[in-house]
Specification:
single chain, 66 residues, mainly alpha
């Protein structure tokens, strides 16, 4: 797999994970406001968000190599 293909794969995956993580965090905030349990949902959202940032950061590194 060449660098451009890796860059594209990491960038798209990172952006998708960041968006998914923010959505899950938003859902956890709504659950907290409703008085429902929210800890695991919030934790999952943070994991997705941080994974997305990591993938996108790797995409930036690969883009600098192009």
């Amino acid at each position: 797999m060449n660098v451009k293909t890796k860059w594209l794969l990491y960038a798209v995956t990172g952006l998708l994970l960041v968006g998914a993580g923010l959505s899950v965090i938003g859902e956890a905030v709504l659950q907290k406001g409703a008085g429902e349990p929210f800890f695991w949902m919030g934790t999952a959202g943070l994991v997705l968000f941080n994974a997305g940032l990591s993938f996108f950061g790797q995409a930036v590194v690969l883009r600098s190599k192009l």
